[in-house]
TrEMBL record:
Pfam families: Hormone_recep, zf-C4. It comes from Xenoturbella bocki (Marine worm). It is found in: Nucleus. GO terms for cellular component: nucleus. The keyword Zinc-finger applies. Residues 72-147 form the Nuclear receptor domain. This is Retinoid X receptor. The gene is rxr.
Length: 420
């Protein structure tokens, strides 16, 4: 058998147009590198190698055994680092957990594009339909998930034990305590008839400080690097606040209850020109939460899923954040099975609120940026900081003067470390 040529690319090298900077080790198989007639290798048959650094790629001649060993270290679905062979395919913990949830809950997905979305380390969470189809295409077996569930409990490698350990790592009790610990209570509810947008902005600024305290109470969040904590909060603050006031408004008729005790009614929102997005909050979030009778434990888990966003830009501990999100999924799944045994689809129903929350969050940001631009609405300091562009914030936070947008957030996060 002829050996196979492998080019090992250090980060920063480009081989045949493939950039290896996003991967710690990239391997490109070269066909016909070693001629079948054992003639000396012709350098002209090799693809063009462009170096952006002083380092050079290493051309090795290796056996299929070494190639197989290399394949075992890479997730066949997204290209991340594989943790082992799961359901017949070498894959990472994220793709393993995604496939398991999909099969066990019999979840159905749809693609908003042409069913050919890119599924890689950075974009694996963008389209669930294409990610699941790639799992099947690469050889993941649905029956393997069912077989795993039927293993005896005393099996050392049983999924039951793994899930139990995961749940202990993300106790539902602590998630609930985080919600109750920052649950804003007001002695009386006051109707906000004048300038509802200003009232919402003021309440958001107040809740941003409380949001840091809430995040610190979520298990393992404080163990992440401070800069990653800031990155995650900046990435999801709008969705986290919207989820909180939506659940707080379950008992309110045609309106929302702010943390300041103010009630903003639908008519006031329409008069202020934000009626469309306000109606979406009422119908897609508040009404759904009310109909489902979503409790604070479930709300806390959904908010923790939003918090642990592995796709947040600038994140350093991406794999760890992915694992923490998986722990939250498992905790919520077990909680649903224990408290709603007669409704096996509850877990899936809860997760279906997340796309709506994401969409509404983006639309609310558009409105806030507009109000910031025209300057007609007073926006407090902390909220103004969150509305600053990530690029500007990062450059300012790196300045030696200590001033800048993100420095305020970092200081706030760091000052509450003992509250975790």
């Amino acid at each position: 058998m002829n050996p196979i040529g492998i080019i090992i690319q250090p980060p920063g090298l480009s081989v045949g147009g493939i950039d290896s900077s996003s991967s710690p080790l990239s391997m490109t198989t070269l066909t016909n590198v070693s001629p079948s007639n054992n003639e000396p290798m012709n350098s002209t048959s090799m693809p063009l190698i462009q170096s952006t650094q002083d380092s050079k790629p290493l051309l090795l001649t290796t056996s299929p055994d070494l190639l197989q060993a290399s394949i075992k270290s890479i997730c066949a679905i997204c290209g991340d680092r594989a943790s082992g062979k799961h359901y017949g395919v070498y894959s990472c913990e994220g793709c393993k957990g995604f496939f398991k949830r999909t099969v066990r809950k019999e979840l159905k997905y749809s693609c908003r594009e042409n069913r050919n979305c890119i599924v890689d380390k950075k974009q694996r969470n963008r389209c669930q339909h294409c990610r699941y189809q790639k799992c099947l295409t690469m050889g993941m077996r649905r029956e393997a998930v069912q077989e795993e569930r039927q293993r005896p409990k005393d099996n050392k490698g049983s999924e039951t034990e793994v899930e139990s350990t995961t749940t202990c790592d993300m106790p539902i009790e602590q998630v609930l305590e985080a919600e109750l610990g920052v649950d804003g209570k007001s002695d009386s509810n006051i109707d906000s008839q004048n300038d509802p947008v200003a009232s919402i902005c003021h309440a958001a600024d107040k809740q941003l400080h409380t949001l840091v305290q809430w995040a610190k109470r979520i298990p393992h969040f404080s163990e992440l690097p401070i800069q990653d904590q800031v990155t995650l909060l900046r990435s999801g603050w709008n969705e986290l606040l919207i989820a909180a006031f939506s659940h707080r408004s379950i008992e309110v008729k045609d309106g929302i209850l702010l943390a300041t005790g103010l009630q903003v009614h639908r008519s006031s929102a329409h008069s202020a020109g934000v009626g469309s997005i306000f109606d979406r909050v009422l119908t897609e979030l508040v009404a759904k939460m009310r109909d489902m009778r979503m409790d604070k434990s479930e709300l806390g888990c959904l908010r923790a899923v939003v918090l642990f966003n592995p796709d947040a830009k600038g994140l350093q501990s991406r794999n760890e954040v992915e694992r923490l999100r998986e722990k939250v999924y498992t905790t919520l799944d077990e909680y649903c099975r224990k408290t709603n045994a007669d409704d096996p689809s509850r877990f899936a129903k809860l997760l279906l609120r997340l796309p709506a929350l994401r969409s509404i969050g983006l639309k609310c940001l558009e409105h806030l940026f507009f109000f910031k631009l025209i300057g007609d609405t007073p926006i407090d300091s902390f909220l103004m900081e969150m509305l600053e562009s990530p690029t500007t914030a990062t450059s300012r936070s790196n300045s030696t003067s200590g001033s800048g947008v993100t420095s305020v957030t970092t200081a706030t996060v760091a000052s509450t470390t003992t509250m975790a």
